[in-house]
Design brief:
single chain; about 1500 residues; 14-stranded antiparallel sheet; elongated
Length: about 1500
C-alpha cells in the first residue's frame, strides 16, 4: 500500500544538495577544483552504497518467497551498517524514501506470516522475526539524534501507519512477544529490552515479581511516545486469555512510569488515561479480571493522574464517581482523591542535552539600568558536573552564565569579572519547585551589585562590575545546556528576563504567586492568583516586619504591589517563556514569547508536558459545586472522609476553584451539608478538613488559619461539631488552645485572624446552649480560657465576659423556671404561652440546668486571668474593678463565687495600692461584711485570711514581706461578722449528735468545721503576729468579738447539752478570749466582760470544776487617756444606708444586664436560625449539576411551561422548565477578600496601663465610684427585616415594607411589598406582623388572609381606595391590595417619587419581581397614567357631588377613555383570548 507513496527515484545522487561537506577551506585550497578530498571521497562512497541499498530494498520489497526474504535481510543488514557508520547517510535515507520503503516492507511481512498458519515452519517464523527486527532497528537508527528524520517520520509517515503495518504481526500469538519487544525497544531506542515480553511470558506467576525487578533496571527514557502507544493498544490482543501476562504487562507500564519523570509525563499525555479508567471501571463486572489486576490498574491510573488529566477525561471520571442510584463509587472516589493531590503544571521536561534558545539581532548587551532573570525549575536529579541554567552570549562570546553545581549550589560567571564564583547562600534541592531570581544592578548606591534570591529570599550578594555595552551584534539567550556533555533531568515552568532590576522585596511576592502563574505581571489585581497558603505566608511576613519596623519600606512595597500591581512595564520584558504558548515537542520546535513575536527554538531533548492538574480540570467541568455534590452524596465515614479530601485538595492550590467557592457561599453550604452528616465525620475527615483550614497535625506548633471565611463558616459552627462523636468534639475543642497558645504563630493568629471574630462571645453563647454534653464542658472552658487570654480587649472580651457572669452567676428575676421568668419568656417569644417552650422556639435548646455552675467556672477563668498583672491592668482600665466585684458577688452568692471574688479583691489589693481605699468608698467592705457570713466555708475562710495577710507573693513581691503580717486590716471585720453568724448556727445545732452510728452521721458539719478553722486561724495569728494583735486596739474590732462570744455562750447555756463539735469550738474561743483579756490595750470593762463569759463557758464545759480565779492585776485597764481616745476614734462604724444603697444599685444594674443578655441571646438565636434557613434554600449550585447537560443529569420526564415574557405582538415563543423546587433566593456573597494582603494590626494592649487617681486628688471619690449602669448592657438593635434582607440586590436598602394581597386573575395571595432604594420587590408567602417583624404567612393571624379589597364581596370604590396596579415596560403588571388606605397612599407616593427620580435612565434597570421575573419600570408612561388617574378621580368626585343627567355622556366617555388607557398601558390588545380585558361594571373593577 506504500507503493503509491514512493517518489520518483533520481538516477544520479546530487552531492551538493544531499550532503554538506565538512572539508575545511585549507584542505580545499590544496586540492584542485576537479579533485575531491579523501574524506569527501569516502563519504561519497558511503552515500552511493546507501543509494544502492535503498534501490535493492525496493526490489526486495516482496518477501513472499524464501529467496526474496533472504535478500531483504541482507539489504536491511547493509542499511543498518551504513546508518551506524556515518550519520550523514540518514539524510540520504530520508530523501530516497527509505522510511516509506521500510513501512511497505513491514506491511508485506505479515502476508508471509499469515501463510504460516496453514504450513507452520520455524525457519519462516525466524525469518519474519529477523526481518521485522532489522526494519525496526533501521527505523530507530535513522531517527535517533536526527531532527529532520524524526519530524518527517512523525508528521509524514506517522505512528498510526506503523501500528497498521504491525497489526497482522501482533495478532499472531506465536510471534507477538517478539514484535512487542521490538516496538518497546524502538520506543526507548534500547534493543536490550526487546526480550522483555518473552521473559515475562516464560516466567511463572510466583516468580514474576523477581523478573520485573530485574527488568526495572533496564528500562530507560521513552524516546518515541507514539511507539509506546502501539504497545498499550496491543495489550487486549496479547493477553486476552492470560491473566498473568496481562498483569505483567500492566506492571511493566507501571515500572516505565516510575522509571523517571519523562516517562510519566509521556504516558500521561498519550491519552491512555481514558482507556485505563474504563478498563478499571468495567473490571468489576468482568469475572475474568482478578483483584490483583484491578489493584495494578488502580495504581497505574493513580500514577498517570499524578500528572493531571484532560477536561474530557476528568469529566468522565467524575461522572462515574456517582452511580445512578446516587451513591458514591468508593473505588473511583479513591482514584479522584489521589489524582486531586497532583500539583504538576504545564512545563518543559528537559533531558540534557536540552535547551531553549532565543536569538536576536542588534543586541549590544544587557540594558544600562540593570536586568532581572527569573526561573521556576524542578530538578529530578542533580548533575554530576556544572550544568548551565541560563547563558547570555554576544556573537558567540559568553557575557553571563548561571550554572547549577553537583551538590545543588549556584555558580555565576560574567565577562566583566572574567571569573566564576560559587554562591553559597542558595542551594537547589531535588524533587521540588525552586524559584531563582538574579538581579544585576548597574549602579547600586554608586556601586554595581548582583543579588540572588532563592525562593524569594535574598541569599547572596556580590559587588561585581556591570557588563559593558558593545557594538550591535547577534545576541543569544540560552535556557538550559545543549552541550553533549550535559547530563541532568529537570523541568522548567516559566522564565523571564526583564530589562529593569527589581526591588529587593518584589521577588518574594513573585515567588508567592507560585509556578502556576505564567503571565506578564500586568494585572493590577495579582492578589487573586494567590492561594490561601501564599496569602497567609505573606501576611505573616508583613506582621513580623510591622512588629519590628512599622511602616517599613518592605511593607509598603509589597502592599503597593498588592493594591496596584507590580511596577513592571510590559515593554521592559525582554522575554517571558512558558509552555502555554508551546504547540509541540521535539527538536526543531519553537515556542513563542508571551506577547511577542520572538521565538525560542528547542535544542536537544525538550518535551512539552501539557499537564492539566485535576483541580484545573475540575474548575472547567463544574468548579466547586462538583466537590460539594460529592460530600452531599457521601453516606459512610469513609466516603465523607474521602469526599472532604477531594474538596480540600481541589481548592487548596487552585485560585479559580477558591474564587468559585467563595461566590457560591460554598463554605456555608458545606457546613449545612455536614450538619446532617455529623456522625459520619471520623478522625481522618476531621483532620483533612482542618488541615485545609490551616491546622498542622503532624507539627501542631506550626498551625494557623489560612482561610478565615471558611474557618468562620465551618470551624466556628459549634452546633455542627456538637453533633459529632465525643472524640471528634474533643479534638475540635482542643484546636482552639493549639491555635491561640501552642502554635508558634499564636501572635499572628490572635492579632490578624481571631481579633475580630468575637470568639469569646461565641463560646459564651455555646455555654448557654445545650449543645455539648456535660463531659465536654471542660474542653469548652479550656477553649474559652485560651480565647480570653489571647485577645483581652474591652469590647471583644472583658465586657462580654462580665455581662455573662452578671446575668448567670445568680438566679435573677428572669430565671425561666420562675413565675417572672415565664412571663418574660412569653413576652419575648421564648416560651409558648399555652405551655412549655415550643419546639420551634429559638430558646428550646438553651441550657437551663447548669447555667450557674458554668458561670462559676467562667468566673474562675476570669479571676485566674486577672491575677496576671498585665491582664489586671487592662481590666482595670476598661471597667471599674471595685463595682465589678460587688456586681459579680451579688446578694446571695455561693461559697465558690465568694471565694473567687475574694481572690480577685486580694489580687487587686496586691497589685494596686489604692484599691482598698477605692473599695471602701463604694461600700465594698461593708457589703462583704453583710453578705459573706451566709456563705462562709473553708474556701471563703482561706481567701479571707489570704487578703488579710496578703498571701499573693506570687503576683507581686513586696520588699520586707512577712508571711504573718497584716496587709489588709479592712477584711477583719468581715471575718468577725462571719464568726458571729457562724457561732449562732453552731449554737442552734449544739444538740445534734455527732456520733458515727447516729442518724445524724450523714449530716454535713461544714459550718462547725469552718468555724473551728476560723477560730484556730485567729488564735495562731494572735500568738505569732504582732500586727494582728494591733487590730484589737480598735473598738470596732474588740467589741463585736466580745458580743459574739457572749451571745454564743448565752445560747449554749440555754441548751440542754453540747455535741463534740460545739465543745471544741467553745474551748478554743474561750482560750482566745482569755488571751485577749490579758492584752494591755484592753479596757477594764471589756476585760471583765470577757472573764465573766469565760467563767460561764467553763461551767458549760466542766460543771464540776472549780471557778477560774485570775489575778486582778492582769486584767486591770492600764491604758493612758490618749490611747483610750484613739481607740474610740477607730470605733466609728459605717452606716447601713450606704450598704443598702450600694446593694440596691448593684441589683438594678444586674437586672439591666440580664435583660440585655436575654435580648442578645434571642437575637443571636434568631439570626442563626435565619442564616440556616437561607443556606438551606440555596440549590442553584446543585441544579446545574443535575440538569440535562450537567455531570449527573437526573433521569425522568421533564415538564415544560410557557415563559411569561412576551415578544413583539404579544407572541410567546419560549419555554422554560417547570421545577417543583422553588427558585433559590439571591444570597449576597461575602465581600470579605479571603486571600487579601492587609496592613498588619499592631498589638497595643500590652502598652495599655491603668492610670490610677491618687487618693488625695479631688476627683478621686467620683472617679472610683461613678459608673453608668448601662455600660455592660448591649444596645440590641432588633433586625425585623432579617427574613428578607438577603433578597435585596447588592447595594440596595429597604425604605418601606407593606403587607398586601396580590391579585392574579380570580386568585388572591398574601405577600410582602418592599420598596428599595433602587428596586421594587414582591415576595409571596411573607407578611409583616403588628410589631413590624417579617414572618411566614402561615404563622400570621387569620385577619391578614382577608385583606380588605381582595375578596369579591367588596365593591369598586372600597377596593379602589386600597388597590394599586403597577405597570412594567415588558407588558407585565402587578395588582395589589393594601390593608388600609393610608398605607396605599404612602406606597403610592414613594413609587411616584421613585419613578420620577429614575425616569431618565429607568429603562436600564431591572426589578427582581416575583422570583424569576425581571421587568423594567416604565418611565415614559408616567404622564399618560397620571392623566388617566386624574380623569378617574374627577369622575368619582362628580358621582359623589352629584351631576345632572345631561352630563352622563361625558362621564361615560371619561370611563371609556380611562378603561382604554389602562388596557393599552397593560399591553392588552383587542380580540385577545389569552387575557381578560379591564372593564368596569357598576361599582366594580375586575381584572
Amino acid at each position: 500500500m506504500f507503493q503509491a507513496l514512493l517518489t520518483p527515484l533520481r538516477g544520479r545522487f546530487e552531492l551538493a544538495t544531499s550532503l554538506k561537506t565538512t572539508t575545511s577551506p585549507a584542505i580545499a585550497s590544496q586540492v584542485g577544483q576537479d579533485e575531491l578530498a579523501p574524506e569527501d571521497f569516502a563519504r561519497d562512497v558511503i552515500v552511493e552504497l546507501m543509494r544502492n541499498s535503498v534501490e535493492n530494498l525496493k526490489v526486495a520489497e516482496d518477501t513472499r518467497t524464501q529467496i526474496q526474504a533472504l535478500r531483504a535481510l541482507q539489504v536491511l543488514a547493509e542499511i543498518q551498517r551504513i546508518l551506524q557508520q556515518d550519520a550523514a547517510t540518514k539524510d540520504v535515507f530520508r530523501e530516497l524514501d527509505g522510511f516509506l520503503i521500510l513501512m511497505s516492507l513491514l506491511s508485506n511481512v505479515q502476508n508471509r506470516s499469515s501463510a504460516l498458519v496453514v504450513e507452520p515452519s520455524k525457519q519462516m517464523l525466524a525469518d519474519v522475526i529477523e526481518t521485522t527486527r532489522l526494519i525496526i532497528t533501521n527505523l530507530s537508527e535513522a531517527i535517533h539524534q536526527h531532527t529532520e528524520n524524526a519530524e518527517y517520520f512523525r508528521s509524514v509517515v506517522g505512528y498510526d501507519s506503523l501500528e497498521d503495518a504491525l497489526r497482522g504481526l501482533i495478532t499472531n500469538p506465536q510471534i507477538v512477544d517478539h514484535i512487542l519487544g521490538l516496538v518497546l525497544a524502538f520506543a526507548t531506542h534500547d534493543f536490550n529490552v526487546s526480550d522483555v515480553f518473552r521473559t515475562l511470558r516464560a516466567t511463572p506467576e510466583d516468580e514474576l515479581d523477581t523478573a520485573l525487578a530485574k527488568i526495572e533496571g533496564r528500562l530507560g527514557v521513552i524516546k518515541r511516545p507514539g511507539a509506546i502507544l502501539i504497545v498499550w493498544n496491543a495489550i487486549p490482543q496479547t493477553a486476552s486469555d492470560n491473566d498473568t501476562m496481562r498483569c505483567a504487562t500492566l506492571r511493566l507500564f507501571e515500572l516505565l512510569c516510575l522509571a523517571n519523570h519523562r516517562n510519566q509525563a509521556i504516558l500521561s499525555t498519550l491519552g491512555i488515561v481514558k482507556s485505563l479508567f474504563l478498563r478499571l471501571h468495567n473490571a468489576r463486572a468482568d469475572p475474568s479480571v482478578t483483584d490483583k489486576e484491578r489493584h495494578i490498574l488502580q495504581k497505574l491510573l493513580r500514577k498517570l493522574l499524578d500528572m493531571g488529566a484532560t477536561t474530557s477525561e476528568a469529566r468522565l471520571i467524575l461522572q462515574k464517581t456517582i452511580r445512578e442510584d446516587k451513591t458514591l463509587d468508593t473505588e473511583i472516589l479513591d482514584v479522584v482523591r489521589f489524582g486531586m493531590k497532583s500539583r504538576w503544571l504545564e512545563h518543559f521536561s528537559m533531558e540534557s542535552p536540552a535547551a531553549l534558545v532565543l536569538q536576536e539581532e542588534n543586541v549590544r548587551g544587557f540594558p544600562s539600568p540593570g536586568f532581572t532573570f527569573m526561573i521556576w525549575m524542578w530538578v529530578s536529579s542533580l548533575p554530576q558536573a556544572s550544568h548551565q541554567i541560563f547563558t547570555a552570549k554576544l556573537a558567540g562570546k559568553t557575557i553571563l552564565s548561571l550554572l547549577l553545581e553537583e551538590g545543588g549550589g549556584i555558580r555565576l560567571f560574567t565577562s566583566a569579572e572574567h571569573k566564576t564564583t560559587l554562591l553559597s547562600g542558595a542551594k537547589v534541592h531535588k524533587l521540588r519547585w525552586t524559584h531563582l531570581t538574579l538581579v544585576h544592578y548597574s549602579s547600586r548606591t554608586s556601586r554595581p551589585s548582583i543579588r540572588l534570591f532563592h525562593d524569594g529570599v535574598l541569599s547572596d550578594t556580590l559587588d561585581w562590575v556591570y557588563p559593558k555595552a558593545e557594538a550591535a551584534q547577534l545576541g543569544t539567550f540560552v535556557i538550559g545546556d545543549a552541550s553533549q556533555t550535559a547530563k541532568m533531568s529537570w523541568c522548567i515552568a516559566s522564565s523571564y528576563l526583564l530589562t529593569i532590576p527589581l526591588d529587593n522585596d518584589l521577588p518574594r511576592f513573585i515567588h508567592h504567586l507560585g509556578p502556576r502563574y505564567a503571565g506578564n505581571f500586568q494585572d493590577t489585581s495579582l492578589i487573586k492568583f494567590l492561594t490561601y497558603d501564599a496569602s497567609t505566608s505573606l501576611n505573616m511576613f508583613l506582621a513580623d516586619i510591622a512588629s519590628s519596623q512599622p511602616n517599613s519600606t518592605t511593607q509598603l512595597t509589597i502592599l503597593k504591589a498588592v493594591k496596584r500591581g507590580l511596577p513592571i512595564p510590559e515593554n521592559s520584558i525582554s522575554f517571558a517563556v512558558s509552555p502555554l504558548n508551546a504547540r509541540q515537542s521535539g527538536p526543531g520546535a519553537v515556542v513563542t514569547v508571551n506577547g511577542s513575536t520572538k521565538e525560542f527554538k528547542y535544542e536537544g531533548d525538550v518535551f512539552v508536558v501539557k499537564a492539566a492538574c485535576l483541580d484545573t480540570a475540575l474548575w472547567k467541568v463544574g468548579g466547586a459545586a462538583v466537590v460539594l455534590r460529592l460530600v452531599q452524596v457521601a453516606n459512610t465515614q469513609h466516603e465523607v472522609s474521602r469526599a472532604l479530601g477531594v474538596l480540600s485538595d481541589g481548592l487548596r492550590n487552585s485560585w479559580q476553584n477558591s474564587e468559585d467557592m467563595e461566590k457560591l457561599r460554598g463554605y456555608e453550604i458545606l457546613a449545612d451539608i455536614l450538619r446532617s452528616k455529623a456522625q459520619l465525620i471520623n478522625v481522618s475527615g476531621f483532620e483533612t478538613l482542618f488541615e485545609f483550614l490551616g491546622m498542622n497535625f503532624r507539627c501542631l506548633d506550626q498551625s494557623t488559619v489560612v482561610n478565615i471565611v471558611a474557618y468562620k463558616a465551618i470551624a466556628l459552627d459549634f452546633e455542627l461539631w456538637s453533633r459529632t462523636k465525643p472524640e471528634i468534639q474533643q479534638m475540635y475543642l482542643e484546636h482552639f488552645p493549639t491555635l491561640l497558645q501552642t502554635s508558634r504563630y499564636r501572635k499572628f493568629n490572635n492579632r490578624q485572624k481571631f481579633a475580630k471574630l468575637g470568639l469569646v462571645r461565641k463560646l459564651l453563647f455555646v455555654l448557654q446552649m445545650d449543645w455539648f454534653h456535660q463531659e465536654m464542658v471542660p474542653f469548652v472552658l479550656d477553649a474559652l480560657r485560651a480565647a480570653i487570654r489571647s485577645h483581652f480587649s474591652k469590647e471583644y472580651t472583658i465586657k462580654p465576659v462580665v455581662a455573662y457572669l452578671a446575668a448567670n452567676l445568680h438566679e435573677g428575676p428572669f430565671d425561666l423556671h420562675s413565675t417572672t421568668g415565664c412571663i418574660f419568656g412569653v413576652l419575648t417569644g421564648f416560651i409558648d404561652p399555652k405551655g412549655v417552650s415550643s419546639p420551634h422556639s429559638p430558646i428550646s435548646r438553651i441550657d437551663f440546668k447548669h447555667p450557674q455552675e458554668k458561670a462559676e467556672q467562667v468566673l474562675e477563668i476570669l479571676v485566674s486571668t486577672i491575677s496576671i498583672q498585665s491582664y489586671h491592668s487592662q481590666f482595670a482600665a476598661a471597667l471599674p474593678l471595685t463595682r465589678i466585684c460587688l456586681l459579680l458577688l451579688g446578694d446571695r452568692p455561693t461559697s465558690s463565687v465568694a471565694s473567687q471574688i475574694l481572690a480577685l479583691i486580694g489580687v487587686s489589693n496586691t497589685i494596686s495600692s489604692s484599691f482598698s481605699r477605692r473599695f471602701e468608698l463604694v461600700g465594698g467592705w461593708s457589703v462583704l461584711q453583710t453578705i459573706l457570713p451566709y456563705c462562709w466555708d473553708h474556701r471563703v475562710n482561706q481567701s479571707s485570711f489570704d487578703i488579710l495577710l496578703g498571701r499573693f507573693n506570687h503576683i507581686k513581691t513586696s520588699p520586707g514581706y512577712s508571711p504573718n503580717a497584716v496587709v489588709c486590716p479592712k477584711i477583719f471585720p468581715v471575718i468577725l461578722s462571719a464568726l458571729q453568724i457562724g457561732l449562732v448556727s453552731v449554737a442552734s445545732n449544739c444538740l445534734v449528735s455527732d456520733g458515727l452510728h447516729d442518724s445524724s452521721a450523714q449530716r454535713s458539719w461544714t459550718t462547725e468545721s469552718s468555724m473551728e478553722n476560723l477560730v484556730e486561724e485567729i488564735m495562731g495569728l494572735h500568738a505569732s503576729a504582732s500586727t494582728f494583735r494591733e487590730l484589737f486596739k480598735s473598738q470596732q474590732i474588740i467589741q463585736p468579738f466580745i458580743d459574739t462570744f457572749k451571745t454564743f455562750v448565752d445560747k449554749l447555756n440555754a441548751a440542754s447539752g453540747l455535741n463534740q463539735w460545739t465543745r471544741r469550738i467553745l474551748e478554743k474561743i474561750a482560750h482566745f478570749g482569755l488571751a485577749l483579756a490579758l492584752e494591755p490595750f484592753m479596757s477594764g470593762t471589756q476585760k471583765n466582760e470577757i472573764l465573766d463569759t469565760i467563767r460561764s463557758a467553763n461551767t458549760l464545759l466542766n460543771p464540776a470544776a472549780d471557778e477560774i480565779s485570775i489575778d486582778p492585776s492582769l486584767v486591770a485597764d492600764t491604758r493612758s487617756m490618749r490611747e483610750r481616745m484613739a481607740s474610740a476614734r477607730l470605733s466609728i462604724h459605717v452606716g447601713e444606708r450606704k450598704v443598702v444603697k450600694t446593694m440596691a444599685r448593684m441589683e438594678e444594674w444586674r437586672k439591666t444586664i440580664q435583660v440585655s443578655e436575654r435580648k442578645l441571646q434571642r437575637k443571636t438565636v434568631l439570626d442563626l436560625r435565619e442564616t440556616r434557613r437561607q443556606i438551606s434554600t440555596l440549590h442553584e449550585w446543585s441544579n446545574r449539576l443535575t440538569s440535562e447537560r450537567g455531570l449527573w443529569p437526573e433521569q425522568g420526564a421533564r415538564i415544560w411551561r410557557l415563559d411569561e415574557t412576551e415578544g413583539p405582538y404579544r407572541a410567546r415563543k419560549r419555554l422554560e422548565p417547570q421545577s417543583e423546587k422553588p427558585p433559590s433566593p439571591r444570597v449576597d456573597c461575602n465581600d470579605e477578600s479571603i486571600r487579601d494582603i492587609e496592613v498588619p494590626d499592631i498589638d497595643i494592649s500590652a502598652s495599655q496601663q491603668q492610670v490610677e487617681v491618687p487618693p488625695w486628688a479631688e476627683s478621686y471619690e467620683i472617679s472610683t465610684t461613678e459608673i453608668d449602669d448601662k455600660q455592660l448592657a448591649e444596645d440590641i438593635s432588633e433586625d425585623k427585616h432579617r427574613r428578607v434582607r438577603h433578597e435585596l440586590e447588592p447595594g440596595d436598602v429597604i425604605e418601606a415594607v407593606g403587607t398586601v394581597a396580590r391579585i392574579a386573575g380570580v386568585d388572591s395571595s398574601p405577600g410582602l411589598l418592599i420598596i428599595g432604594k433602587t428596586h421594587l420587590y414582591m415576595l409571596d408567602g411573607l407578611v409583616e406582623n403588628d410589631e413590624g417583624e417579617v414572618i411566614e404567612a402561615h404563622d400570621a393571624p387569620k385577619r391578614l388572609y382577608l385583606v380588605p379589597g381582595s375578596i369579591v364581596e367588596l365593591g369598586g370604590p372600597q377596593r379602589a381606595q386600597r388597590c394599586l396596579e403597577i405597570y412594567f415596560k415588558d407588558s407585565r403588571s402587578l395588582l395589589i391590595v393594601f390593608l388600609d388606605k393610608k398605607k396605599k397612599m404612602e406606597i403610592d407616593q414613594r413609587l411616584s417619587s421613585m419613578v420620577g427620580k429614575y425616569s431618565d435612565n429607568i429603562s436600564n434597570r431591572k426589578t427582581p419581581l416575583l422570583g424569576r421575573m425581571g421587568p423594567k419600570i416604565s418611565g415614559w408612561r408616567v404622564d399618560e397614567l397620571h392623566t388617566a388617574q386624574r380623569k378617574w378621580q374627577a369622575r368619582e368626585i362628580s358621582n359623589v357631588c352629584g351631576i345632572p343627567v345631561q352630563a352622563k355622556r361625558l362621564i361615560n366617555l371619561m370611563q371609556f377613555a380611562y378603561i382604554s388607557i389602562l388596557n393599552q398601558l397593560s399591553g392588552r390588545t383587542p380580540s385577545d383570548a389569552t387575557q381578560y380585558p379591564i372593564f368596569r361594571e357598576p361599582r366594580m373593577l375586575l381584572v
